[in-house]
């Protein structure tokens, strides 16, 4: 009896162990199957997502390139518009400068029409050429006053160089500051003027004698006048070449 019980107990234990092993094996099998299924799912996801990811990156790169190209094109168009606008502004400024320069030259010509004859009369009077015999001393002084008024009125229209040449010519022909209320004196001799008055036929006034300094500025007057004429011509857009030699003065028989 005891032996049968022992044998039955052993059988039962063996069956229990067998059941446990079966359950363990079943669990292990289920775990392996689950693990395999997980790996398969991952592989499937990777294989599915990879083309999508590549396509997405390709789209983003293409879109970024498109945006960059648009930005570049817009920058180019903006630069072109700015360049064209700057060209138009430069052209307008150039044309306006040309018109202003032309107006200045036209005004200078108009001014020269006023001063040219008077400057030439002074030159002829001091150089004893042309119509110097017909010109009276008060007329020369009056010419100076008119010239000074015009030149100083329109001073902004002339360069410093031209104005300096004008003053040099006036200083060579006239002596200012000869006394309160007195006119500028003529830097030349008086005897030839008296003879010219007798020759031409107008009465010489004794008071005119004090209008002369008795100086001989023949060469200085010639050089300063030609310098002034050269400067005036240049500011009128002209080019002239004057003789460096002074003219031969007219001699009057005594």
Strand adjacency order, main sheet: 1-2
Shape assignment: rod-shaped
Q: Would you list the SSEs in sequence order as H and E?
A: HHHEEHH
Strand pairing plus helix content: what structural class? mainly alpha
Number of separate helices: 5
The profile of the biggest β sheet is: 2 strands, antiparallel
The rounded distance between the terminal residues' Cα atoms is 194 Å
List segments where confidence is low: pLDDT < 50 over at least 5 consecutive residues.
none
The whole-number mean of residue pLDDT values reads: 85
**Residue fraction in strands:** under 5%
Helix content: over 70%
- Let me know the number of strands: 2
* Rg, nearest Å: 57 Å
Structure, described:
This protein is mainly alpha-helical and about 250 residues long. It is about 75% helix and about 0% strand. It contains 5 helices and 2 strands, in the order H-H-H-E-E-H-H. A two-stranded antiparallel sheet has the order 1-2. The N and C termini lie far apart (about 195 Å).
């Amino acid at each position: 009896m005891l032996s049968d019980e022992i044998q039955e107990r052993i059988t039962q234990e063996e069956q229990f162990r067998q059941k446990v092993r079966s359950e363990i094996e079943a669990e292990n099998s289920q775990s392996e199957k689950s693990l395999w299924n997980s790996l398969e799912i991952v592989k499937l996801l990777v294989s599915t997502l990879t083309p999508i990811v590549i396509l997405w990156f390709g789209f983003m790169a293409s879109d970024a390139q498109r945006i960059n190209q648009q930005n570049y094109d817009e920058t180019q168009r903006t630069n072109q518009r700015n360049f064209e606008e700057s060209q138009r502004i430069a052209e307008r400024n150039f044309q306006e400068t040309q018109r202003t320069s032309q107006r200045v030259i036209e005004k200078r010509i108009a001014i020269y029409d006023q001063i040219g004859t008077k400057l030439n009369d002074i030159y002829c009077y001091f150089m004893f050429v042309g119509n110097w015999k017909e010109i009276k001393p008060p007329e020369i002084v009056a010419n100076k006053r008119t010239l000074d008024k015009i030149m100083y009125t329109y001073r902004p229209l002339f360069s410093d160089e031209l104005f300096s040449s004008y003053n040099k010519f006036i200083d060579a022909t006239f002596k200012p500051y000869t006394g309160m209320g007195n006119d500028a004196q003529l830097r030349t001799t008086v005897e030839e003027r008296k003879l010219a008055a007798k020759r031409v036929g107008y009465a010489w006034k004794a008071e005119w004698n004090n209008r002369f300094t008795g100086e001989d500025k023949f060469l200085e007057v010639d050089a300063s006048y030609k310098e002034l004429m050269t400067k005036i011509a240049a500011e009128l857009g002209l080019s002239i070449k004057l003789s460096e030699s002074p003219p031969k003065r007219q001699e009057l028989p005594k």
